[in-house]
Amino acid sequence: MVSRRNFFTITVIMLVIVFMFQIPEVVKDKVNHYDKNEYEELDVSGLDKANAHNATAVSVERTGRFVVFIGRRTDGAGALVGDWCDYTKRYVEYYDKVSDYRPRENLQPEVILVDAEALHGSEDSRNLLQLAEDGNDLIFCTLPDVEELQTDQVMRKLLGIREIVKKEVTVGGIRLLGGFLLGGQKDYQLGASTEETQQDLDLTMPWYRVSSGTKSYMMGLLAESPSDTEYGTEADTEEELKNEDLPAIIWRNNVNGCKVFVVNGNYLKDNTGLGFLNAMMSELKAYDIYPVINAQNLVVINFPDLADENAGGMMERYSQRLKAVYRDIVWPGLVSVAQQNSLKLSLMIMPQMDYTDDVEPEGDTLIYYMKLFQEQGAETGLSGVYEQDSSLDIKLRIDTSFFGEVVPDYAILSFYQGNMTKEEVDDALERDMLAKVRTVFTDYQATRPLISYWNQSVLRQSGITDGYNHTFGDNLRMTSIQTALGYSTIQVDVNPVAYPSSDGETWEKLSKKFASNTGTYWKNYSCFDKTTLAESDLKVRRFLALDYVQRREGNEIQLELRNFDQQASFILRTHGEVLASAQGASFVKIEDGAYLIEAETNRVTLKLEEESHRTYY
Amino acid sequence: MSMNVLTILQFLQILTVYLIMTLLLPSVLLYSHIKKLKFSARFMVYQMVGNFYMMSIVFLLQLLHISNRVTLILFTAVPYGVAYVVLKKRHPVKMAKKALNNAERLAGGQFGKRLFMRRVRTKAFRSLRRMGRRWLRSLGRNFFDLVLVAALTAGLCYAYGSNLLFHYGYCESDLPVHNYWINYLSQNKIFVAGIYPFGFHCVIYYLHEVFGIATFVLLRVFCFVQTIMIHYMLLAFTKSCCKSKFAPYVGVYIYTMLGIFGENTYIRYHATLPQEYGMLFILPSIYFLFAFFEKRGKREKEDFWYLAGFAVSFSMTLSAHFYDTMIAGLLCVGVAVGYCFRLFRRKYFGKVMLAGFLAIVIAVFPMGVAFAMGTPLQGSLGWGLNVIMGRNNKTNTTTTTTTERVEEDSVEEDTQAGGADTEAGSEVIEPAESTKAGNRSENSPEGEKSGRSEPAESLEADSQAESTEAGDQSENSPEGEKSGRSEPAESTEADSRPENTKAGARSENLPEEDSTQKTARAESESKPGGSGAAALSAKGAGVLVAAGGASFPQKIGNVLRRAYRGFWDAMRIYVIGDSYPVFQYAVPLSMALLALLAAIFFLLRRTDYAARFLSMSAGLVMLAILQGSSRMGLPTLMDAIRTCIFFSYVLAAVWGMCADGILELIFGWFKKKWMLHLASMAVLAALIVTTSRAGLLRPLPDRKALQTNDAILCLTNILHDNEDFTWTICSANDELRMGEDYGYHYEVHTFLKEMENKGSSGKIIIPTPRVYFFIEKVPVTFARAYEGGEPVVSVDAATMRLPLSVGISMYKGNNRWIEMSRLYYWAQKFMEIYPNEMTVYYESDNFVCYCVEQDMYSLFNFSIDYGYNMLGTQ
Questions:
Q1: Residue A572: in which H helix or E strand, if any?
Q2: Which positions ≥6 away from B673 have C-beta within 8 Å?
Q3: B426-447 in b/e burial notation, b at 16+ Cβ within 10 A?
Q4: How far apart are the first and last CA of chain B?
Q5: Do the interacting molecules here have an ipTM over 0.90?
Q6: Among A130, A551, B18, B804, whose CB has the most other CB atoms within 10 angstroms?
Q7: Phi, psi dihedral angles at B140 (to 5 degrees)
Q8: Structural domain spans, chain A
Q9: Three-state secondary structure readout of A83-145
Q10: First vs last C-alpha separation in chain A
Q11: Of B472, B391, B453, which is closest to residue B635 (Cα–Cα)?
């Protein structure tokens, strides 16, 4: 028997416990403003295309940042150099031919970039050699044909090619040495822990053996023993091939104290070349400082699908409906990867895939997810993906109606282009629902700028790597772009989970790859800020608007920023020096000789010290 | 931390570990058994035991090829523990049982923790108190002794220790080869260059291996430790022989603090050399003989231990260096004279002879085993045997006419310094020929051998030819004219023989040379036929023959006069210069006085005391004969320049004994000894005051090293900053052996030669992440002075042809200037090509060290066209 007194006590305790558990949930629910986009408060006023900095010949006098490109402006290398100059605030002059360029006494370029397609005959070789001997550093974005090099001794001397071992060799992999791009040494060679599909680099190239006075940054790795007839020259069969004799891919030669960078391959023809150019500039100087975006995004597109679509397929694969799969399987997986890697989620909602069927998106589901996103600090955007049987207009109308009904006050700041054309996106951006969009997120396109203004006020950011498939080429690109911009965007499309195109596209397999790729390849870049698309949008706008002047006096680097808006990021590359202190900025070491600097004022002073302090004196 | 502070700390560390091994551990073991002996005698015993054990254990383990840190510690600790149990009559089983019982009771709660701790505390406190009282009592009794020993130590710090702070590098060219031999002990390769007395190397190796002190640090700093010990040993020996307390300090004071002795008598103390290490055991061997004879066989057991002490000490002289054995042997002859009235009795003679034989067997045994196992003799041993067999004299005479060319040849035949330049191998001449050449150069008359002794590095080469030039041969070279930098003869020769440019050049390095010594030598050598020791030898022999027509007493008189003249000349040149005539006369006088005092004390029936005096007097006479042997026409067993080191060392003991003898004669009659002690103190004080006032104190040392301080500084930092074997130093030889256990070395000459006339078409790959280049902007004067004064690296020198010579000669004189200039301009060009990869690691006015960092997967080709290497192709 329970006494009344005890009964009363037990009841009180139970009530207290109930309240204790319920109150936090209630409070959490009350303070969760899922219907408001917290990133809307980020102030981007005054940061639009009109304010983006464009270097001019006039600005060169102040900044000294000026390069010359010899080749066609619209070609791969020319376009790349144009983008690179935009990002590094350099003024670039284009010349179609070597003979067109006339050095000016009062305006010497930092470097002359050369596209081999613009070279015609030995006269150009001699002219380039003369330019180098006159004190101009050169970057060969591409190389002339190996046949031409065989006959052109002047060019070989200029490029530092001691010997053409073979006109064409297929290497087993590629080695990128440390200290050039950020992230340390990388061997792009298939091994026990890699899949064959990862190797997508161009492994066929001429085999050049470089001469004394050169420094190699990237080289081919032979797949088999050099004694194998496929590779071995007669001399090579006698002794083991040394590292320094491996096929050179990127190297630096010295001509009368001037540096000539040579790229044996197509690495400087698309966005992959951005970081290489920065790294080469850093190698040219005793130190280099350049602005970066400093943003790492994880963009999940087409998640969630708010309509319970493809029920048959989902039951067949997962024995659950789409709603349950997304809620119980996909979402926890996404969150765990994001948390493990301290990444912020940007989710591009796809209200429904098929606008022609009767299955409609559920408002409760949207609210449920919006609350979860809010708790995770994620940003919610809209995906432009839809079943092509329908029309864009229908999609936008239905989506507008749906969002207006469920979360009428939520400002969509990011929009995923999906399979829409530019015109369709332009049309979409004029709709009320998307009127506040700041960033159009696009898939990666090698020859399009990674970041640019879509229109006067809307920014374009593109994905850089796919979360599921990380090939060697993807890794090289990511490494290069991290070096150039401190920027990366992992793009994870969840649509294959609902609409798989092959047996391999089940979530358990996709999530495994996604988790391992994300956890592996981004480790070296943990110092960069983790952002949502809206946050990186602000950083990119600031980055594009920024201009700067730097000068060094003794051990101090003075940095003067123009168009500075609260915050700007830079990467400092040094050789044998360490960054001891910074005024007006904070800094963090990325790796040996590389620092990420966060400017907090428009005047920054960096103090360098010699790296080696001798213990005994 | 400054390098000076580091050096001091290193010295303290080495001194501490050495004293632990040679004083603390033996004293813990033996004190209770020899506490009746005077402290000075105990000190000698401890030193003998400690050093002998270290040597023996290393010899044993090396011959078994199991020598490493673990076995060395094991073979030290276990026998020590056993000896402790046996000698202290402990019962380890009982002790273990008792400890176990205590632990059980403690764990079981029967024995309270507080009670246990109180007992431990009480026991420790009582032990400390007992020890403290004993120390205080001892301190009280020996207060003045302690003060004087402290003063002596301070004086040694001034006279020798300070040089460690002025010059960090090796002060003798022999050291790299000793370093090399010791390095190979770490690989269980004893006698790596052939059989040689390895006692010294064993001790250094032991300290290196067991205590983890780098060998090159030991070789830099241990010299001062051993110098301190040598002086302590001198003091201990003199105190053992003297009656008064403070008279022994007289000799030690004069020897340590006064600048009357020629530089050659002490200059080698600035380097860690086997001969000086072996000096530690000369006087103890004599002391043990004294003790044996004085015990007169009262107790068989004591007889045994004294003879054992003699045998072990004598064997250690042989284990360390043959010269020490020769000196010890000559002093033993003196002892035989002094104790002749006992020696030839049956109960002494056999024992002494057996002990002597055993001493030699003990020392020779490891070498014999190695020889039986197929290890050849090291080159200098062959030379030593030649001397013993009398063949050397012939060579000596024949080389009297040796020209400088011969010397140059022999130097050229010398092997590559540090063995880095393998091309030398192709130019090495046949072993026999090489040996001859080596001997010729070594035996060449005064001044023929210029500069420092030839580099011991040559021993590093594989061939016999190479080894004959090296190391101790350079030390063992007869006719002391094989000089060190301070060898005085050359300067005179430079004047008398203008063609001898080397000697002339070297004289420029001797600004401090005693002018009287120069004059004396100039006089002696300007005499017809008297310019060389060998010539003197021939002349002397001629004099003896010419005297054949005189009567016998006249002959004897002539011979004695010539002998005395020969000794006097040698003494003036090598021991005490003409600036100190009083001290010069004191040398023969002290010999005579000691003999006279011996005679008096014999008459006074103070037989033992007198015999000691007579022994030392006779011993000194023997050394005097050795000192002047070349001038007396006698076979030259040892360079005069080497003999003078031992001569002055023994002379210091003799002077102390003379002072003691006189005081004993005056005050020894009193029953109370305090008057005698007081008088000895007064004499010492008077001497100190007088000599100080007369300005006779020795100036601060300035024994220059063969490396710049900057090079040692850089090496020390490189070792500290980098992991082992991740770096390479490209320098002129010296760092090869210093860093051998930790990294790699590349010879400057090889480096430059490989890109000569090749430029960028050549290939020089150095596969370590960091490569350091040591460049002397003001090249070091190494063995040969520069033509036209001290140079700096210049275009003029860089334009000159790269030296074709091999061996160490490419780093001598102008060759070094050319090499350094070439390397300097190579570095400038390389830095232009790789501005970010090559940095200045350290720079001073005289020296610069560049560091090149390279990726191990893409090594730089260091062969470039720096202009001067391509002149031959233009």
A1: strand A568-574
A2: B243, B244
A3: eebbebeebbbbbbbbbbbbbb
A4: 50
A5: no
A6: B18
A7: -65, -45
A8: 49-292, 296-539, 546-610
A9: HHHHHHCCEEEEECCHHHCCCECCECCCEEEECHHHCCHHHHHHHHHHHHHCCCCEEECCCCC
A10: 87
A11: B391
Closest CA to B521 of B558, B476, B559, B483: B483
- Domain A49-292 fold is Rossmann fold (3.40.50)
Q: Which amino acid is at B686?
A: A
Q: Is the Cβ pair A576, B839 closer than 8 Å?
A: yes
Tokens at A235, concatenated: 């001399």
Question: Do B837 and A215 lie within an 8 Å CB cutoff?
Answer: yes
Closest partner residue to B765 (CB to CB) among A185, A244, A612 is A244
Fold of the domain spanning A546-610 = Immunoglobulin-like (2.60.40)
Residues whose CB is less than 8 angstroms from the CB of residue B300 and which lie 6 or more positions away in sequence, other chains included: none
Give the start-end residues of each E strand in B679-763. Answer: 727-731, 744-747
| Amino acid occupying residue A576 | G
Q: Which of A21-25, A381-385, A582-586 has the lowest mean pLDDT?
A: A21-25
What is the phi-psi region of residue B89: left when phi exceeds 0, alpha when psi lies from -120 to 50, beta otherwise?
left
Q: What one-letter code names the amino acid at A447?
A: T
Percent of chain B with pLDDT over 70: 80
Distance of CA B231 to the CA centre of its chain: 13
* B382-407: average pLDDT: 46
If you average pLDDT over residues B354-368, what whole number do you get? Answer: 88
CATH number for domain A296-539, candidates 1.20.1270, 3.20.20, 3.30.1490, 3.40.50:
3.20.20
Which residue in chain A is spatially nearest to B859 when comparing CA positions?
A: A244
Band the pLDDT of B420: cuts 50, 70, 90. very low
- DSSP class of residue A329 equals I
Smallest CA–CA distance, residue A176 to chain B, in Å, is: 10
Chain B residues with CB under 8 Å of a chain A CB are: 1-3, 6, 713, 716-717, 720-721, 759-763, 765, 832-837, 839, 841-842, 851, 853, 855-861, 863-865
CA distance B760 to chain A (A): 5
Structure tokens at A299: 């963009």
Neighbours of B633 (CB within 10 A): 22
A242, B717: Cβ pair inside 8 Å?
Answer: no
- For the record, the structure tokens of B530 come out as 């008297």
The alpha carbon of B340 is separated from its chain's Cα centroid by a whole number of angstroms, namely 33
3-class SS at B561? helix
Encoded tokens for A382: 């809209």
**Three-state SS letters, A60-99:** HHHHCCEEEEECCCCCHHHHHHHHHHHHHCCEEEEECCHH
In 3-state terms, what secondary structure has residue B462?
A: coil
